[in-house]
UniProtKB/TrEMBL annotation:
<keyword id="KW-0520">NAD</keyword>
<dbReference type="GO" id="GO:0004471">
    <property type="term" value="F:malate dehydrogenase (decarboxylating) (NAD+) activity"/>
</dbReference>
<comment type="similarity">
    <text>Belongs to the malic enzymes family.</text>
</comment>
<feature type="binding site">
    <location>
        <position position="423"/>
    </location>
    <ligand>
        <name>(S)-malate</name>
    </ligand>
</feature>
<keyword id="KW-0479">Metal-binding</keyword>
<dbReference type="GO" id="GO:0005829">
    <property type="term" value="C:cytosol"/>
</dbReference>
<feature type="active site" description="Proton acceptor">
    <location>
        <position position="185"/>
    </location>
</feature>
<dbReference type="InterPro" id="IPR015884">
    <property type="entry name" value="Malic_enzyme_CS"/>
</dbReference>
<feature type="domain" description="Malic enzyme N-terminal">
    <location>
        <begin position="90"/>
        <end position="271"/>
    </location>
</feature>
<feature type="active site" description="Proton donor">
    <location>
        <position position="113"/>
    </location>
</feature>
<dbReference type="InterPro" id="IPR012301">
    <property type="entry name" value="Malic_N_dom"/>
</dbReference>
<dbReference type="InterPro" id="IPR046346">
    <property type="entry name" value="Aminoacid_DH-like_N_sf"/>
</dbReference>
<dbReference type="GO" id="GO:0006520">
    <property type="term" value="P:amino acid metabolic process"/>
</dbReference>
<dbReference type="GO" id="GO:0046872">
    <property type="term" value="F:metal ion binding"/>
</dbReference>
<dbReference type="InterPro" id="IPR012302">
    <property type="entry name" value="Malic_NAD-bd"/>
</dbReference>
<dbReference type="InterPro" id="IPR036291">
    <property type="entry name" value="NAD(P)-bd_dom_sf"/>
</dbReference>
<dbReference type="Pfam" id="PF00390">
    <property type="entry name" value="malic"/>
</dbReference>
Length: 598
């Protein structure tokens, strides 16, 4: 459900009320996905924009069109075909595309994003019809600025999502096909948080690929060479960042699906100088922390009470640890070193200690080896010694959370917080029904994939109750963070702003009102959640002196209205005919599109 609009802030540059200037007429208008309304053009618009004779006579509503599109969608034979249908619809009519998705968000989410988008990316070169986004060739750094400049003026782009395609959605190196993940993330930003779709820019940095199947495919569209690494790679990323900052100085930059060796390194390199974000490093940590905070509230605990074991110390596991550590440090007013003592990481060698070779990111969590016996660093032994109240799984080891381990945890924690987050479902560390059975319904559970509610005899006098299972879906958090940075024109995205975003999500947790409800809001509530997240981010940005936008409302009610007024909604707006001569890029339908010939 789209947030209600207010005319109080109707004069804002990103306001979505009132008519749109449009310089296109006739078939040019009908082929513009930004302005096209198809059968929903009014009779007056048909006359003024020279559309009579180009459309059937019956004037229909957006709801009629969405129903027709849904019926067509249902005829597609499989999810990949449905994904392709939606892509085609987006190319024809942007408003209708997003309206259809919002009407059937829960049903279509896995089709427009993971896992089906992964199938589309793997088949990118075979399904290719038309390019969408900016393709940067690592062999030509001299072209980066001019290639990016095709996408508009400094005021035309708010949100850039960039990938190098090395680690896509758990399916690995997909080379140039990574452009689709940049596009998918931006679709979610518009769908879930109302980021104006015409003001977003998907980018892929084509560095080559180490995927043998792609290298041997004569239809592959990217550079047919091994991935470039080292200094040439780093220099190219710097060239991209410098050009993007020069051309679009107010744009927020989202790094997506970079490889393990680059994701955190690049984020830490650029965070101190610009507002940027990495969903793999920060997003998973943020949404997991939101679920943890909600679970702590539900169990009457505080951040300072946390004793967390993370099973699987890759980018996701360490990212979660970092967000929890930062929240503890902020809440307790202690440094990161002290806050990290609340967290234990287990990876393939067992508990990470000072005797292990660990990455820079893992180092702060490594425990003193002298405190642990060589045979006492497996998960069960660690649980028995640490007595954690939180257990998080990002290991992709199915069934790793055994009954013995969970019961050992439950002995020292009346309401254990247990999150088996590995994807896909077959790789989960445990099933929610088992976790609840082994703890007599006391476990507070969130998962990395959707699971059905679980029913068991855990109510008063052994009555059956049904407990809903939360899904730690990043889309509950990252779109609102992006919206908050865009609207505040934040100079940086700080730790405090991320913690504020997490608190915004946690404050809307259904479990706070109903102990059988999930720990996180449902994806169908995501636009309302994004308002709260954006509000929290903006308030933190103002407090920290990171906001550069003028006249941001200071009270909660006005700030929410200010945010809602600038959130794009899939609704047809009246069109106002303007002359092509002197028309803006927006009036020509050119925002979000490259400008050939520059």
């Amino acid at each position: 459900m789209a947030p209600a609009k207010s005319s109080k802030f109707g004069d804002l540059p990103l306001s979505t009320v009132g008519p749109l200037d449009c310089a296109l007429t006739g078939t040019a208008l009908l082929t513009s996905p930004t302005f096209n309304k198809g059968s929903a053009f009014t009779q007056t618009e048909r006359r003024d924009f020279k559309l009579t004779g180009l459309l059937p006579a019956n004037e229909q509503t957006l709801d009629h069109q969405a129903e027709r599109a849904y019926q067509q969608y249902l005829t597609r034979s499989d999810n990949l075909a449905k994904n392709t249908f939606l892509t085609s619809l987006k190319d024809q009519n942007e408003v209708l595309y997003f309206k259809l998705l919002l009407n059937h968000l829960k049903e279509m989410f896995s089709v427009v994003y993971t896992p089906t988008e992964g199938d589309a990316i793997q088949n990118y070169s075979r399904l290719f019809r038309r390019p969408e986004g900016c393709f940067l060739d690592i062999n030509h750094p001299e072209r980066v600025e001019s290639d990016l400049a095709l996408w508009g003026t400094p005021d035309d782009v708010d949100y850039i999502c960039v990938t190098d395609g090395e680690e896509i959605l758990g399916i690995g190196d997909q080379g140039v096909g990574g452009i689709l993940i940049s596009g998918a993330k931006l679709t979610l930003a518009s769908l879930c948080a109302g980021v104006h779709p015409s003001r977003t820019l998907p980018v892929v940095i084509d560095c080559g690929t180490d995927n043998e199947e792609l290298l041997n495919d004569e239809l592959y569209l990217g550079l047919c060479q091994r991935r470039v690494r080292g200094k040439q790679y780093d220099d190219f990323i710097q060239t991209f960042v410098d050009a993007a900052r020069k051309l679009f100085p107010r744009a927020y930059i989202h790094f997506e699906d970079f490889g393990l060796r680059n994701a955190r390194r690049l984020l830490e390199l650029y965070r101190p100088t610009m507002a940027c974000f990495n969903d793999d490093v920060q997003g998973t940590g943020c949404v997991t922390l939101a679920a943890i905070i909600a679970a702590l509230h539900a169990s009457g605990q505080k951040l300072g009470d946390i004793r967390m074991v993370v099973f699987g110390a890759g980018s996701a596991g360490v990212g979660i640890a970092d967000q929890v550590r930062d929240a503890i440090a902020t809440e307790m007013k202690i440094d990161h070193e002290e806050a990290s003592q609340h967290i234990w990481l287990i990876d393939k060698p067992g508990l990470l200690t000072s005797k292990h070779e660990v990455s820079d990111a893992q180092k702060i969590y490594a425990k003193d080896a002298s405190e642990w016996k060589d045979d006492g660093n497996d998960l069960l032994s660690v649980v028995k010694q640490v007595k954690p109240n939180i257990l998080v799984g990002t290991s992709t080891v199915p069934g790793a959370f055994t009954e013995e381990i969970i019961k050992a945890m439950h002995e020292n924690s009346s309401r254990p917080i247990i999150f088996p987050l590995s994807n896909p479902t077959r790789l989960h560390e445990a099933k929610p029904e088992d976790l609840l059975k082994w703890t007599n319904g006391k476990a507070l559970v969130a998962t990395g994939s959707p699971f059905d509610p679980v029913t068991g005899p855990w109510g008063e006098d052994g009555k059956d109750i049904t407990i809903d299972i939360a899904e730690c879906n990043n889309s509950v958090v990252f779109p609102g963070i992006g919206l908050g940075c865009i609207l505040s024109r934040a100079k940086l995205l700080t730790d405090r702003m991320l913690v504020a975003a997490v608190e915004g999500v946690a404050s809307l947790s259904p479990v706070l009102k109903d102990p059988t409800a999930p720990l996180l809001p449902d994806v169908e509530e995501v636009r309302a959640v994004s308002v709260q997240v954006a509000k929290s981010v903006i308030q933190a940005a103002v407090e920290e002196g990171m906001a550069t936008e003028k006249n941001i409302p200071s009270n909660d009610h006005d700030l929410e209205e200010w945010i809602k007024e600038q959130m794009w909604n899939p609704e047809y707006r009246p069109l106002k005919l303007v002359k092509m001569e002197g028309a803006t890029r927006a009036a020509k339908g050119e925002l979000g599109k490259a400008m050939p010939g520059l």
